[in-house]
Amino acid sequence: MRSLPIRELPSELASPSNLASYLAGAGWELAASDAARMVWALPGRGRPTTILLPLDSTYVDYSDRLNEAVAKLCAVNEWDVEQLAVNIIQSRSDILFIRADQATYGDSIPLRQAEKLLVGSADMLMAAARAAIAPRAHFKGKSPDLAKEFLDQDVRFGHTRRGSFILTIVTSLADRSSTEQSDRPVGDEEVVGGTSQSAPSEFADGQSQPPSDASPPDAPDEVLVSPPIGDRDRLRIPPYQRQVMTTLARGLGAAQELFQAASTISMDDAVRLGLSSNLLDSLDGMSDFEGLHALDMSFQWSPSEPSPPETPQRVIIPRASFVQFKPVSDALKDAPTSRTDTIYGRVSRLDVDDKEHGAGEGVFTIKGVTGSADNQSARMLLSGRSYVRVYQALRSRKLVVVTGTLEKVKGTWWMTGDVEVEDVREA
Fold this sequence. Notes:
Strand content: 25-35%
Low-confidence stretches: 1-5, 177-222, 227-234
Oligomer: single chain
Number of domains: 3
Structural class: alpha+beta
Shape: flat
Distance between the termini: 45 Å
Largest sheet: 6 strands, antiparallel
Mean pLDDT: 79
Radius of gyration: 25 Å
């Protein structure tokens, strides 16, 4: 086996953490680890193949052992170092494939059409980057620095694939300062300051308010706060890059649903999922070619992050829908200006009295991060089913996702407007 010097692998990829991320996503299993090394095994017939990854760069043989790990990975997969580098990048990246479904000659398309596809792809990603921070029907003005950094630093154009004409957009999920919140506590919670009681159950038949004869649980004291959190309870927020790609997939899925003859999605719901006039304008530009039958977009999620729930993996928009891009975009541009903010976090506090609790109404405080990856604490008045869901999240210490409009009132941030509890999930 030829010795493959580490310098042939880009330095940012030749690290134990990057190699370990690739191994975990490629079916290898961690067999042993300590402060100095990890041993990975590839299950199979007979004796498993193993690779040792050194962790402590102060050891004199650190470079030799890392070199051996790189060489063995190339040998096992029958790759050269360039192929290994591509697979390491992909293991830490979300990938978008954009297929121009049309007749091609030698897997090629006209240069002008390729230009429109590339420009449209960049515009589409920028629309999703802005919607991931705060969904809007129409974005105008200067793009936020976070969105511009995403497009400048995290997105790459990969190798095209065979099959009509396919663009490969690679989005790195590598850590940046804007995503360092991923494994941090969400605030300084205190000890429960009231009586211990059971969480109320969901109201029957999905009612938004409790029935008049409902018997509420024992009412808490006026203030209920979450107990302190430890290392096991640290909040896991997807990196901003993953949030952008998830928003893009959901926004495209909303557009696909909106264009159906029997569509049941509202324009407001589509916007909340990531649709905007900017996204539709980008699709309009990408589809401006007579021979195009459909835009076929599919997503490959990096194994380094949990796959996003309720997110389409493939969206196909046929030519028959292309004529709807402009009128729907114009309608979104004319829509009343509104702002939707999202906060991801844990419920840290409930302010309520006996009467309010019995009626299913109270003021919650959520500590977490907003779509722009900023630390945020916000209060909100909730009632009915939203009250029940967030109250249960407080008691079970689950993560909540709430949308509304963040406003500062007398020095305190409040979630106002049409406040919706989008999700309650395990952290």
